[in-house]
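Researcher: I'd like a structural prediction for the single chain below. Treat it as a standalone chain; there are no partners to consider.
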Amino acid sequence: MPNATLLITESSSLTLHILSDIYVFLAAVSLFVLFYLVKFIIIDETLSQGVKLTSRAIFNKFNTAISGGGLFLMGYYAFEAVAVLQGRSITTAYSLGAHACLAGIQFCYMCYTWLRGEAIFDITNPRLLPFLRIMIRVSPLVLLTPSIVALIILLRGPSETLTLVSNVTFATSAFLVSSFDGVVCMSFSIYLRKSDTTTELLQADNSRFRITCFYGLVTTSFEVVTIFGTLFAVTRASNLEYQIVMVAVRAFLMCGYGSLVLLKVALHRQKVARATLTLQGTQNSRFSSTPRTKSSQLG
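Model: Treating it as a single chain, here is the predicted structure.
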């Protein structure tokens, strides 16, 4: 029996170290994606378009939100690579760092989705627009509160009251993100369903909005999977089972962030393509009008 217990312990320890290595890999992938994003912002969006490289051009609200999300994502995986080895019920500096980074990821996701989709929300669900604005404004406090509670637990030690408060704050933040996801899914789905038939939608920037809706729905789907996956993980009695499920769940955060980066790239390419077509149309118009001018002069 002691040998069997020892084998189980060693097996669990080995599995946790493998999970830690997976988090390190995810952190490396997120760093690569962040490097690509920075390159895309500086070269593709700025320099190649003849725009002067200034802090105002680089650090606009769109770039700040999506780049901040990438930094928080990388930090989240880095902290989890250590926290996974320390147990699910133990609050440490590493788990606290992971909590704070998760709050940053969720806030950046909500801000970027809001910035890209505000006009769409105004078209599809104008009555919910004030509600969404309130959600964005209160989100920093709601999302950071679990980290603040975790910091108090780290400094003062765990207690039943603090554990209850921690669970409530986590549930509240999850409810906020879930509600936001629900409105986003509903609004983007309505737009895609009606964009080819409704006059009001056809008069909008239809092609860009359709791109935003498609990638927005993909991102939101990954967020929903993350939330429900987390709910499933907390029902696991074994720490090892919990950690295995959570690795899979947290990998979906990378997928969601990747879809936001792809959204940015797709919108830029659509903008360049439209500008190219406009320029070609102008040149063709000038070319076709030149013979008329000469013939009129000869006549």
